[in-house]
Amino acid sequence: MTPSELLRLYHIIRVMLSYGLDELIPHLRITLPLRVWRKFLFWMPNRHKDKPLGERLRLALQELGPVWIKFGQMMSTRRDLFPPEIADQLAILQDRVDPFDGKLAREQIELSMGGIPLESWFDDFEIVPLASASIAQVHTARLKANGQEVVIKVIRPDILPVIKADMRLMNRLAGWLPMLLPDGRRLRPREVVREYEKTLLDELNLLREAANAIQLRRNFDGSPMLYIPEIYSDYCSENMLVMERIYGIPVSDVEALKANGTNMPLLAERGVQVFFTQVFRDSFFHADMHPGNIFISEEHPEDPQYIGIDCGIVGSLNKEDKRYLAENFIAFFNRDYRRVAELHVDSGWVPADTNVEEFEFAIRTVCEPIFEKPLAEISFGHVLLNLFNTARRFNMEVQPQLVLLQKTLLYVEGVGRQLYPQLDLWKTAKPFLESWLKDQMGVAALIRGFKEKAPFWAEKLPEIPELIYDGLRQHRLLRHSVTQLTDELRMQRVRQSQSRYLFGVGATLLLAGLLMLVGRQDLPEVISAGLMAAGVVSWVIGWRRTR
Questions:
Q1: CA distance 411 to 271
Q2: Within a 13 Å sphere around the CA of 345, how many CA atoms are in the beta-carbon half?
Q3: 41, 166, 392, 396: least buried by Cβ within 10 Å?
């Protein structure tokens, strides 16, 4: 570990202890060494005793920077795992992080616009930010060209070195994990950290976010389920993004949604449908769906529509991943745990020699109790923990390409729990997945595949006679080469057989000559010398045969 990484690690520990977060360490026998280590090596006191634990946790994560703030945002959606006094404070991290000076934001905007004064492009620029998050903050303005209300998103200054320092430290600690934990290698911690680092660095490029938002807007163009604000790409750069200003109710403000007459059951169901549509229909999903990035349109509350912003982190799945996930979901919904176990083995996520019967029984033990219960009574956090323990028993590896999907699933559950705790997640998702699988495997899929390939086949059709001729010629040449190679191998075997025979003859002659030289003094030495010379000649000829 380098001096800079040690210094950063010390800073992280010092910040956490200065906010008294060692209170979160449970008083168990297994944590005794950790608590003793804290007392002897770090004796710094809690400097914020007047604040409740939830606020201290939020302030510590906020002080540590964007990597930790993102972690807090994810935890804020798990109200089933944390008491309200902690979850409410962590929710503040979604869009109410301490802002940086609006004058710095103005300077960055003008720098991104080529040094031209801001007033040349925008009217009514608000120096006080509308919202501030871990990576960037937004200011309101109005486009001078058409009078459209917009928000301008600006990256926090000097944020990149902080992120890279934390990720280097996390990568270092991830390298230690396989040595510290018996199943640490199975977790593939380096790959997971590398994937997390990539998503964070992608968020720093607002041109990428603009492209993601344009893609999502096109995917849901005209959809009653999801609206993505328009992006004004002519004004965008790596450090600045300009998009349509939207007005809506934050998805976390359940009381305001109810007061507006929102159809809460339909809203919750559409949240699930939006997620599965993005994942399975489009293979392109918003992977940062915490409540700070989701609003509900105030119009048509009986037919509610989501509004999604902050598309910096998106995920995608290939055809194999989608097929595997869909079949697993269907098998779970049908309680076909045998199929779930077989899919895990077939995919290579667990070793091929896994006992399928034992794996099936373990999955049944974990998953059977969760069915036929409303969402309010199901803790997916506990289910995931049980599945983790099951996976550890059967050496299942973590799949880094699905980390974003797993995180998004946690967000969807957290939002669904807040909106409508009685939502039947299984009933909502199962018809969608069955329809998708049928579409992928039925006659319609065959016809669609034919239509997709038809232009390519039509282009190659005139070349078919020439390709057939080339194939036949290549086949003839290949057959000639195989025949030639076979002959060469046969001749080589003959030469090797001859060389072994000559080596044997040479050894016999040498041994005979040596015995005659030593044991029969009455024979002329020339006979012994001749036999030995003949043996040497036989060896030389045998050696040349092997070349």
A1: 11
A2: 16
A3: 41
CA–CA separation, 128 vs 139, rounded Å?
7
- Please report, to the nearest 10 degrees, the dihedral formed by the alpha carbons of residues 438, 440, 445, 451 taken in order: 160
* Encoded amino acid at 133, one letter: A
pLDDT of residue 90: 81
| Tens-digit pLDDT profile for residues 4-32 | 777 777 788 888 888 877 776 666 565 56
Residue 127 marked in a binding site = no
Task: Consult the annotation and say whether 138 binds a ligand.
Answer: yes
Scanning the structure block, which residue is given the tokens 């006094």? 85
Q: Are 390 and 183 in contact (CB under 8 A)?
A: no
Q: Do the beta carbons of residue 143 and residue 232 sit within 8 Å?
A: yes
- Cα-flanking dihedrals φ and ψ of residue 153, to 5°? -100, 130
130: annotated binding-site residue? yes
Instruction: Consult the annotation and say whether 132 binds a ligand.
Output: yes
- CATH (residue range 102-315): 1.10.510
267 pLDDT tier (thresholds 50, 70, 90): very high
Please give the residue that has the higher pLDDT: either 67 or 182.
67
Rounded to whole angstroms, the Cα distance separating 246 from 309 reads 9
135 is in an annotated binding site: yes
Q: In this structure, are residues 175 and 190 in contact, taking their beta carbons and an 8 Å threshold?
A: yes
**Catalytic entry in 95, 166, 288, 310:** 288
**With pLDDT > 90 as the criterion, what percentage of the chain qualifies?**
20
- The pLDDT assigned to 64 comes to 84
Strands 306-308 and 226-227: parallel
Rounded Cα gap, residues 37 and 396, in angstroms: 33
For the chain, state the CA radius of gyration.
35
Over residues 344-402, the pLDDT tens digits come to 788 777 788 888 888 888 888 877 777 666 655 666 555 655 665 676 677 766 565 56
**Would you list the domain boundaries of the chain?**
3-94, 102-315, 463-546
Count Cα neighbours of 538 within 13 Å in the Cβ-side half-sphere: 19
CA 142 to CA 145: how far, in whole Å? 9
Place of tokens 């065959």: 446
- How far, in Å, CA of 232 to CA of 242, rounded? 6
**Euclidean distance between CA atoms 354 and 340, whole angstroms:** 13
Could you tell me which of 148, 42, 54, 157 has the C-alpha nearest to residue 103? 157
310 is catalytic: no
